[in-house]
Amino acid sequence: VQLVESGGGLVQPGASLRLSCAASGFTFRRYDMSWYRQAPGKERELVAGISSLGGATKYADSVKGRFTISRDNAKNTVYLQMNSLKPEDTAVYYCNAPRVGDYWGQGTQVTVSS
C-alpha cells in the first residue's frame, strides 16, 4: 500500500489550496478514504472522509463549509479542496484508507501565515 500526498504549500490567510493523494496497492474504488492533519504538538485529527463511491462525505466542524473532499476512482486519487484557509489550518495533511490498515504517506505541509 502506498499513499502519496501533494499540493501543500505556504499561503496567506483566505487563500485556497488543493491537496491530492495518489493511492496504490489496494482496490481504491472499494474503500472509503479520509484526510487527517497533525499540527505541531497536537494529535492527528480527522479532517474529512468520503465513501468508496463518493456519495457520502463528512467533515470536522472546524472545516465545514470551507473544505471539500472528493475522489476520482479512475485515477486512484482523493482530493481535498481547502478554501478560506486560516492560520489554525497549519498542519501536515495525510490521507488514509481506514479499512485498509495503518498505512500513511509522508504527508504534505500546509502553512497558513501572513
Describe the model:
It is built from no helices and ten strands. It is mostly beta strands and 114 residues long. The strands form two sheets. The chain has a six-stranded mixed sheet, with no helix packed on it. The protein has a four-stranded antiparallel sheet with strand order 1-3-8-7, with no helix packed on it.
Which properties best describe this structure?
single chain; 114 residues; four-stranded antiparallel beta sheet; 10 strands; globular
Which sheet architecture does the biggest sheet show? 6 strands, mixed
Counting DSSP E segments of at least 2 residues, the number of strands comes to 10
- Let me know the average pLDDT: 97
Number of distinct helices: 0
Helix content: under 10%
Q: How do the helices and strands follow one another from N- to C-terminus?
A: EEEEEEEEEE
Low-pLDDT runs:
none
Secondary-structure-based class equals mainly beta
Instruction: State the assembly state of the protein chains.
Output: single chain
Strand order of the largest sheet: 2-10-9-4-5-6
General shape: globular
Report the sheet-strand fraction: over 45%
Distance between the termini: 37 Å
Topology at a glance:
Layout: E1 2-6, E2 9-11, E3 17-24, E4 33-38, E5 45-50, E6 57-59, E7 67-72, E8 77-82, E9 91-96, E10 108-112
Parallel strand pairs: 2-10
Antiparallel strand pairs: 1-3, 3-8, 4-5, 4-9, 5-6, 7-8, 9-10
Concise overview:
The chain has 114 residues and is mainly beta.
